[in-house]
Amino acid sequence: MTVVPMPHMGVSVEEGTVIEWRKAVGDEVSAGEVICEISTDKVDTEVESPTSGTLTKIVVDAGETVAVGAPLAELNGDDRAVDAGVEIGARAAGGRDEHGGFDPAAAADAVTSLPSDEPLASPVAKRVAAERGVELGSVTGSGRNGRIRKADVLAAAAAGPSSSGAAAARRAPLGAPAPKGVPVGYEDVPHEVVPTTRVRQAIAEHMIRSRQTAAHMTTEVDVDLTAVVRARRELNAARTESGEAKLSFLPFIARATCAALAEHPDINATFQGEQTIRWGQVNLGIAVDTEAGLLVPVVRNAGTMTAPALGEAIADLAARARDKKLVPDDLAGGTFTISNPGSVGAVSAPAIINQPQVAILGIPAIQRRPWVVAGPEGEEMIAIRSILRLAVTFDHRAVDGADATRFAVAAKDRLESWATEAYA
Asked: Does residue 400 have an active-site annotation?
């Protein structure tokens, strides 16, 4: 028999929850075919069969949580395929023994010892806590290194409301619905109840936490993209001839942003009250719209890349995000984020800061507008130009408005004087 394990998905994940089984016992499966979907604290993803064969046993039912490396199912296939997959995942997890081999206990210790401002809890524990109004900070975890599990939350709920839970109840807005209920006075209004996905719950928690943590302020600058339009046209003509995909405007904006961040290190940073951490490289988060919700995969060391290289890296991450092929480490370590609501038609783009970063760049739609330009003799004249309004939202605790604006202007200057030989 071949055992299909809960995959090791990087140092930030210790366990996962089965969301849905795509295959049933007795089904024939091919190597690489998706057999189930899983959810972790970071991302939802798919588990592929390591070999061809018949699914003979499902070990973990939908809704259950298990540790990485634990069996999910059994196939009557070739063990060699899964062994290779487990070893590759083991290396990614970061737990090794003295001989360099994978050590599950060491991997779990490495994961659970990572610093975090949030209680260590499984995805199911978080969901049950939200449903039952239990604050995770008041629950004692029985898992490894104090990790909170479903049973811990149920025990806390059975013990009655905690003082923290009561405080949370007092903060609830007037007229708020009871759990799984509808607001008072809406009982006879036709409706449907749509369960909130794990990804949407994580997004909601992150957005509220960011608003409660950072002092949000936005500064905007208008950019004449004439130089970028010309450079993009020339580059795409050459790329088309060589069979490469065309570049959107996003890689050019990303390249100018990275260059501006190099001159303004306080924007590529994390603010911690008594100290600020200036990051030594730009790990650029790119907000991606997916069916499951907004994900922000990270382009590592983006400041060293050309515009075409950034375009290819962004396209790869976006495709894997939409195909549920990301692993949690793809979403970790971002130092600055770009949000691109202009891709769906937004004309203004202030955004919520992606914690623990201190700023985020919003990109609305590029608009053709009448613009005042200098004529051949220096006289003013009206021309039709492609104009982009960059929106830099920043944490005013860490950065003053003038500094944030200077960063925005630095990105603007690079775009308006785009030199392909310098940036692409």
From this structure: yes
